[in-house]
Design brief:
- The complex is a heterodimer of chains A (115) and B (279).
- In chain A, 63% of the residues lie in helices and 0% in strands.
- By secondary structure, chain A is mostly helical.
- Chain A starts with 11 loop residues before the first helix and ends with a helix.
- In chain B, α6 packs across α10.
- Chain B is built from 10 helices and 10 strands.
- With 279 residues, chain B is α/β, with parallel strands linked by helices.
- Chain B is globular.
- The chains are: A mainly alpha (115), B alpha/beta (279).
- At the A-B interface, α1, α6 and α8 of A face α3 and α9 of B.
Amino acid sequence: MGNVERCDKTLPLNEMMFHVRRDAALRARWLTDLEGIAREFGLSAPEYEALRDKDVRRLHDLGVHQYYVPQILRLFYGASANANSHPALEAYKRAYPKEAVASARLQAELDRRAR
Amino acid sequence: MATIVAAMAMTHSPGLTGWFDAAPKGQQEEALRATAEMRERLAAARPDVVIAFSNDHLLNWPINNTPEYTVGIAAEHVGPADWYDEWLALSKYRIPGHPALARYIVNDGARRRLALAYLREMKFDDGISVPMHYLNPDGAIPLIPVTMNCTVPPIPTPERAYQVGSVLRDMLKAYPGKERIAILATGGLSHEPGGPRYFWVDEEFDLWFLDLLKKGDHEALLRDCTLERMEEAGSGGTAELLSWILAMAFTTGPAEVLAYMPAIAWRSGTGMVVWPTLA
């Protein structure tokens, strides 16, 4: 099965993200007190460090649900105009360079076809 | 007795509202044309209520407890949820609900051995907000949102979605009212939201899937379009097509494909479909 089955349903970071997205007070602390939020939700050191480093591959490897990873990045970089060129998505291109190149190639081919 | 008056399906990708301009002009025009046609056909069916089958993106239910299906029973639905309005570039909207029918679905479902969770106040992300923006922009048609879990393992199978659709079809037709009911499925086509292939679209899978819908042979589609095949075409996202398969149970024969766009810019295979013949 696919990537989504790698998620660890019992990971504290997955629980934390559910609440962060529903609670404006937690979101307001994201950039200034991430460590405090992480402590309150019982994150392990590797979970906190992957989060702090915005490391997409490590977050996936730890079992963060794939939906939450782009949302983590949007909390750091902002959510508006979230096109593929958005700074929040650069972390994906760093984590999965092969996939990013393949996508860029496909995009170029589709653009050629459209012209 | 109530009547089913329409069945249609469309992609709900956030790019369709949040960064619409990022796609090539041709795709933008195609999406606007196809959604306008869906909107006209929906209005022409004169529905008293639209039941929208989407999926919860871990917004309403935490990962430790994700019901297979959830019905929104509110008298009025308000969206998008705060965290989503900026991302979707949508201002707040209000759409009346249909509590009597929604509560009937929950309770009659239980009698028919369908475990349907419900929420008196459902929160809305792209799954409901994007299609409502295009198809029900004034909130003139009352809405019953139904979300399914198609992303937290275990993900249900296409057979299961079709079976649930069949039970819902029989149940809705038996509703003791004169309601004209439109069925809308939202989600798909191929995409892998937040996964390694986040910027990928599997055009070959999408065209193959749409071709199965055009053939209208439900048994063949259920045999060939396995969950494994959907996951290969984009994990954790393509399976949103389970809502389309659920809606298919309300129809017979071929679907009409209004548009398809391999829209990498919106990070999703993007399609709009109407079923002309209802079961």
